[in-house]
Structures are given as structure tokens and as C-alpha cells.
Amino acid sequence: MPNPLKYNKKFDELNEEEKQLLEINKKSIADFVEQSSSISDVNYATRNAHAKAYAVVKATFLIDQNIPEALKHFFDKEKFDLTIRFSNAHLKIKNSKRDIPAYGFAVQIKDENGGLLANYPLVNFPLFPINSVSTFLKLFTAVNRSYITKWNGLYTAAIQVFKTIPSVLNTSFIKNVMKLFRKRHDFILSFDYYSIGAYRLGDHMIKIKISPKYIDRNIGKKQKTKDALKDYLQNNDFTADVLIQFCYNLKDQPINKLNVEWKNSPFIKVGEVKINKDSLLDTRNCNIELLSFNPFESKVFFQPVGKIQKLRDEAYKVSVQTRRKINKLLHGKGVDNKA
């Protein structure tokens, strides 16, 4: 294996304008979460993204016996305990039969003592349409405000969406959009799941891919996504390969250019995710809704890398702190969570 590029904190640094826009965005996140129960018409505060939980399960990460020698000190056990949350990326919870096929596969990895090792919020689309931190923050803030003001800010949000168009007009992005469109009706567990940005693996930087095995994409065609997923998990085991790519040079594997795929970096299998049938947790339990999959709560040598990723640190903190404050108050009043 060639020598991967080493992590440098300069990959994460924001300029002064970006820092100011981030503070504005954090306020919009807190405002959204405070009003999220009325936005989604539920009796609890929701997340600021991936609000709709389809299922939460217990699982196992089984380490591959043929893992490269250089990686063995990171994966020094035969298996690790996981909690996985399946979700939809929409900010608002909708009771619809078919959701947009923007799915989340958030993974929490624990050590043998139950301590947190890492959180990895993965999604079923490998790219991100915006490279500019300023453009992203302005768009995210505008979208939050449009929900809060009952779409009075829709014009501002539309302007920010228009500014993202140049970033998506490349072969890599268009190819993946077309692939997603062809699979838009496929079963949620038949998708590959990706870390959009890079993460540290010790001194180096990687991307992650979860690739399911032996899944029929036509499962649950006549059901709601949530019902189809729960029915499957109650009656079937699920297995997926865990693959990683290393960053060797910024030309082929850019850290802060998220709208193109990495090339010339082969996928390395490090293990498998295994969900045994009937491992579902009760998403109506308030403690389950309070779970956080913030990747910045991970051990320092597993944390996210890059400017867009850095934004998630503060965004997650504001979202989860506001959500937990409200939901703990509701939980204390005996409100039943219907997540």
C-alpha cells in the first residue's frame, strides 16, 4: 500500500467571513429546532436534518481476517458493537407513502466497555453539491428560515439554490444523479452508503463506503419505506461490506472538493456490518430520539476532515443541545415520543 497523505488541520480552517456566516446559521438551526414540533406536526423536537427515523437497530461490526497489516492497530478486536439509525434527509417529517430517496445510515461504534469510538453519518449519495462554505451556509440558513416563516423566505432560498448550479455541472455529479434517479424506487437497504466528506484514520484521511450484500432492490414496492424496512429487519439478517479509500494526493482525492468522486484510490475491505433479524429498537422511546450521531464526538483520530465537515461540528452541537433540552422537558411531562 503506497504512503497516504497525512492529515493537516489547515484542511479544516475557516476564514473570518465563513465564521460569521456560521454564527448566523447556528441561530437559524436553534430557531428551527425550537419550532420543529409544529413544522413536522409531532409532539417532540426533531433534528435539523434527517428528522424522520425509519428504524434504529443494534448491530455488529465484524473485522475482516485479511485486513492489511498497517490497519490492524485501528481494528484490534474481532468485532465492535454498533447502533444504526436509518433516516430520511428531509428537514420535515412527512407521513407519505414514498419519500424522496435521500436516505441516511448513521453508525455509532462502541468499544468493549460501551464507550464511544466513532459516529459516522453515512448517506446514499456519494457527493455534495456545494464546495463553497459561504454558499452552503447562506443556503442552509435560508432554508431554515423559510420553514420557520412558513415559506416567506422561499425566494431567498431559491436564489441560494441557483448559486449551487455551477458545482453540479460536472460528469461525476451528473452520473451519480442519474444513477440515483434510476434507483429512486429501490428498497432502502439495497443502496450503497457513503461518507460524503473525509475522515481521519489516525494520521491519514479516508472515505467510507457501506455496500449491502444479497439484497433484492424490489422489496417493499407497495409499502411505505418505513414499513418495508421494519418488516425486513424483523424477519431477515442484513450484511454489508465496510470499505475505505485513502487520500494519497489532493489532485485525485480532494478533501475540500466534495462534488467529485475520488479516483486512483482502490477500496479496501476492512470488515462487515451484521444486523441480526429482530434487532430493532423502539423509536417511540424518547431516549432513542435523544441519540446523537455527531461525528465530532468521535475519538480525535476518527473525526471528520475538511471545511464543509467542520461546519457540522457547531451545527450538530446547536441542534442536539436544543433538541435535548426541549425533549427532556417533554419527557419529564410524560409526552409519548412518536418518532
How would you characterize this protein structure?
The chain is of the alpha+beta class. The chain has one domain: Catalase HpII,  Chain A, domain 1. It has helices at 16-40, 133-148, 154-163, 165-168, 171-182, 225-235, 286-289, 307-332; strands at 52-63, 79-88, 103-110, 116-123, 193-194, 198-201, 204-212, 238-246, 268-275, 280-281, 304-305. Strands 1, 2, 3, 4, 5, 6, 7, 8, 9, 10 and 11 form an eleven-stranded antiparallel beta sheet that branches. Strand 6 and strand 7 form a beta hairpin. It is globular and about 55 Å long. Residues 334-339 have low confidence and may be disordered. One of its GO terms (molecular function) is heme binding.
Throw out a few tags for this protein.
single chain, 339 residues, alpha+beta, Catalase HpII,  Chain A, domain 1, 11-stranded antiparallel β-sheet, 8 helices, 11 strands, 32% helix, 22% strand, disordered C terminus
Tell me briefly what this model is.
This protein is an alpha+beta fold. The chain is built from eight helices and eleven strands.
Write the layout of secondary structure elements.
Blueprint: H1 16-40, E1 52-63, E2 79-88, E3 103-110, E4 116-123, H2 133-148, H3 154-163, H4 165-168, H5 171-182, E5 193-194, E6 198-201, E7 204-212, H6 225-235, E8 238-246, E9 268-275, E10 280-281, H7 286-289, E11 304-305, H8 307-332
Antiparallel strand pairs: 1-2, 1-9, 1-10, 2-3, 3-4, 5-7, 6-7, 6-11, 7-8, 8-9
Distance between the termini: 45 Å
Q: Looking at the structure, what is the overall shape?
A: globular
Residue share in β-strands:
15-25%
Number of strands: 11
Number of helices: 8
Q: Can you summarize the main beta sheet?
A: 11 strands, antiparallel
